[in-house]
């Protein structure tokens, strides 16, 4: 197990990202469909989230609720693994005090998020497009899978197509940065209040509370970027860029348009974040214990 020393954050992140993504993807599908809905007539009409689930399930069964899962289970675990790994590495350089100030956490998270987004954005584009393959559009060409979608984007749009939604996504790295900064601050405070060394293992209930509070806060603050990112990556509507997407959304739908799908995102993000962090923490400490035996 000595070979795993130094990679416990990476492996823990991959494990957490995989389990949470596989568990919560149907909620992500709903969030993407609601966020992309700017009123275009081709969009399916859902009266509620339950109605959406019923219609999707009626058309394609459980498989329909997992459209876009392949790029998600590739990109999300990789992103979380790299994020936790490089975040802790970068934080050691940006840290100016033993208490890891909030600003240092935010800076480390932003730098890490930007690097990872540059590597994984093509997968997020494919995820969005596969999630937006509507059941009632029988004449629309369907992607055969992740590889088929990647080939289609490359053939029709080139390299630029893989980086649609990149700018709002880059801005959106503050979501993970804010979440992780709040999470670490709460965890450090808890360790201090219990008289424990920093980064000591806490109870699962502590991780549950900290991950819930941090994710709720970051989602509300940064959700508009997710709407812009989804719409730019959608292949049904064309925008000239981020500013065009922003202005058209604001003009037609007002401020409310930037929060379409927020409820689905919150419903998804609470269990998603909790599962990710708990699996990450438990996997990390398991590897650390094995390395000491």
UniProtKB/TrEMBL annotation:
The keyword Transport belongs to this UniProt entry's keyword annotation: yes
Compartmental location: Membrane
Main localization of the protein described in the UniProt heading: membrane
Transmembrane segments: 64-86, 106-126
Topology term for the membrane: Multi-pass membrane protein
Any GO CC annotation of this UniProt entry: membrane
Key words, A-Z: Membrane, Repeat, Transmembrane, Transmembrane helix, Transport
Solcar repeat residue intervals: 4-93, 100-189, 202-286
Keyword check for Membrane: yes
InterPro entries named in the record: MCP_dom_sf, MCP_transmembrane, SLC25A32-like
BP-aspect Gene Ontology terms: nucleotide transport; transmembrane transport
PANTHER family: MITOCHONDRIAL NICOTINAMIDE ADENINE DINUCLEOTIDE TRANSPORTER 1-RELATED-RELATED (PTHR45683)
Similarity comment: family membership: Belongs to the mitochondrial carrier (TC 2.A.29) family.
Protein name: Mitochondrial carrier protein
Organism for this UniProt entry: Meloidogyne incognita (Southern root-knot nematode worm)
